[in-house]
Amino acid sequence: MKIELGGKNVLITGATGDLGRVMARTLADCGANIAIHYHSNERKAAELKAEIESKGRRAAVVQGDVTREEEVLRMKDETAARLGAIDIVIANAVIQYQWTSVLEQPAADYIGQFESCVIQSVFLAKAFLPAMKEARYGRLIGINTECAMQNFPTQSAYTAGKRGMDGLYRVLAKEVGEYQITVNQVAPGWTISDRDRESNSEINEAYSSSVPLRRRGTDQEIANAVAFLASDLSSFITGAYIPVNGGNVMPAI
């Protein structure tokens, strides 16, 4: 048994980011064609496109602000023209900001997190799910976070955005399930990426000591979970929030 995505077309938002790049490579290795979304890093998007194509897959680069509906609709048209209809959408893009206390956090940061966590997914759903409904097949996968369950100091804007995203995905899973579209979330912990490898900062004992597996996860482990949810191996899983964090947070029944 293996993860097989041959012939599937995947859109990954924020594909030039630390986690997005590994997702793109992993899904391409599973046989998928990849639509690489970027907001500002055109050079990295072009490099990733060449890498995907070197694996024998088709790839397309699309730029856009995923918090604006007209740009998401344009992205849909561009990906359809270059790859065909999108079968799998991965909402990975998120706005970065400086974390601080609730009393000091600018209101604009809460708005930005709501837009990039919730509104992005609303626009992606409106743009791409109608064709999935017609095909009676599709996957929407959102990248959430363990922070949504931790609620630690200084996490308020991020947690608020991601908890809003969680509610949206659970409702959406019920609304589109009859069309055999699954809607799920992967919730990474504090994940090791190329940025950590380049700075030799993979190890953090203070964090790892609280993790049952006593280590940080890797970008590849996040991508593996995404690949599983994108595949037919997960065809009867929907509405799930799946932590990939070594047990650092554990949803309860």
TrEMBL record:
Keyword 4Fe-4S assigned to the entry: answer is no
| Coiled coil feature spans | none
Q: Pfam family example for this protein?
A: adh_short_C2
Q: Which UniProt keywords apply?
A: Oxidoreductase
- DNA damage as UniProt keyword: no
Q: Which GO terms describe its molecular function?
A: oxidoreductase activity
- One GO term of the biological process aspect: bile acid metabolic process
Tell me its family: Belongs to the short-chain dehydrogenases/reductases (SDR) family.
Protein name as annotated: SDR family oxidoreductase
Q: State the organism named in the record.
A: Paenibacillus pinisoli
Q: What is the lineage of its organism?
A: Bacteria, Bacillati, Bacillota, Bacilli, Bacillales
